[in-house]
Amino acid sequence: MSGRNEEQSPSAILAETAPGSVDFGERASVVTRGVALENRSALIHVRFRPDGTVWEIAERPAGLSGEEWFKRLCARVGDRFQARCGGRGMFRISGDELEALKASQTH
What we know:
By secondary structure, the chain is of the alpha+beta class. Helices cover about 35% and strands about 25% of the residues. It starts with 9 loop residues before the first helix and ends with a helix.
């Protein structure tokens, strides 16, 4: 035997074996918020309309539109944007950078 507790759930085993992973229940809530924090890095997910405007974007501060938040992210950390297929993309930044961007009041 591998020495693991036979009664452990698959999510507990995954949490032990995958560095920086979270259990399945927590992972589901992270995905619905559109941001994943792993080892204090953040993935900010963006969805675009067919005309290229922002449809949805994660972690948007109150008082900013999706377009304004996207433009702020592009201006400050645009080199860390990754385009995906299907009108999607993501910014991969540190948790500290995310907090600083959300706190700043100007573009």
